[in-house]
Amino acid sequence: MSTDNPTTSVDDSDVEFDAAELQALRERVEELEESVADIDEADDQKKMTIVATQGSFDMAYPPLILASTAAAFGWEVVVFHTFWGLDILHEEKSQDLKLSAVGNPNMPMPNALAALPGMDAMATKMMQKKIDENGTATIEELIDLSLESGVDLQACQMTIELMEYDEDDFYDGVTTGVGAATAIQHMAESDVQLLV
Amino acid sequence: MSSEHNVTETLDVKGQSCPMPIVKTKQAIDDLEADDVLEVVATDSGSMSDVQGWAEGTDGVDLLDQVEDGDLYIHYVKKTE
Questions:
Q1: Could you tell me if A79 lies within 8 Å of chain B, comparing CB atoms?
Q2: Which residues from chain A sit within 8 angstroms of residue B54, using beta carbons?
C-alpha cells in the first residue's frame, strides 16, 4: 500500500478530474482500504465452537480445558451446552457432578461391583482427590477462567426447559436463550468444531 | 532465579497443571507492556510443549528461551507488541 500523498493537481495529465470527482474517488479508496483491513483482521481471528453434551465429572473437563486454552490463544470460543452438558453450567449441579463407575472400562473394578450403591460417589471422590493432588483446576475454576477470558458459555434453551431449570440457576455470565440454530451458525463460522 | 534475559516479571505456576500454565501466562502477558519479558516457572512437564505451541500460535509474543532446571520448567516469553 503506497503511503505517498496523491497530488491534487492533475493538470499535466490528459485526463482531468474535477475536485468533486477526485474527492469521491478518494473516499471510495478509503472505504475499500478499510474493508480490506476488516477482511484481513477477520481472517486472522480463529474461532472454535464446542458442543458439550456430557455432564459427568470426567466429561466436564475436556470442553472447559480446550475452551480456556483456545481463549489464551486469542481465539473466539463458543461452548454450546446441551442435554447433560447443561449441568456443567448449573451452579448447584456443577458442584456435584458424578463419575460413573458402571460401564467404565477404566475403573479398576468389575461392573458387578461398580453397580453397588455408593460406588459412583466413591469413584468421584477418588478422582477428585487425584485432581487435587495433581494441581488440576476444579470445574468451577475453569468456568470462572473461561468466562473471564471471554469464552461464550451457552446453555441450550430447549434443554433448560426440558430439565425444568431456571435461567437463574446458571453461573453469572452464561448465555441463555439460544438453540441449535445459533450453534449451527457458530459452527459454520468456526475453524474448529468439536462435539464432546 | 538469575538469567541472561531481562525479566520484567515472574509468574509462579508451580504445582499447577494443564491448562493453568498457559491460561495464567496469557493473563500475565496481557498485563505487561511491549518489550517486557515474562518468566514463567512451572512444574508441569507438558508446559515445555504447550508454551511453545501457544507462543507460536499467538500474535504479539516471542518465546525467547525454555530451561529445564531439576523439577522446574522455566519459560521466557517476550511481549512484542
A1: no
A2: 69, 72-73
Is B57 annotated as catalytic? no
**Is B58 part of the contact surface with chain A (CB cutoff 8 Å)?**
yes
Asked if residue A111 and residue A27 are part of one domain, the reply reads no
Same domain as A117, residue A22: no
Domains, chain B: 9-79 (3.30.110.40)
pLDDT digits (tens, 9 = 90+) for A134-189: 888 999 999 999 999 999 999 999 999 999 999 999 999 999 989 898 999 899 99
Residue B40 near residue B75 (C-beta atoms within 8 A):
yes
Q: What is the ipTM of this complex?
A: 0.81
Based on the fold, state whether residues A115 and A21 are members of the same structural domain: no
Between the CA of residue A61 and those of A26, A87, A103, A183, B32, what are the distances in Å? Answer: 53, 12, 19, 20, 30
Q: What is the CA radius of gyration of chain A?
A: 26
Q: Which of B19, B25, B26 is the closest to A65 by Cβ?
A: B19
Check if A166 contacts B (Cβ < 8 Å).
no
In this structure, the answer to whether residues A36 and A100 fall within a common structural domain is no
Q: Within a domain: residue A24? A: yes
**What range defines the domain where residue A99 resides?**
47-195
Grid cell at residue A85 = 452438558
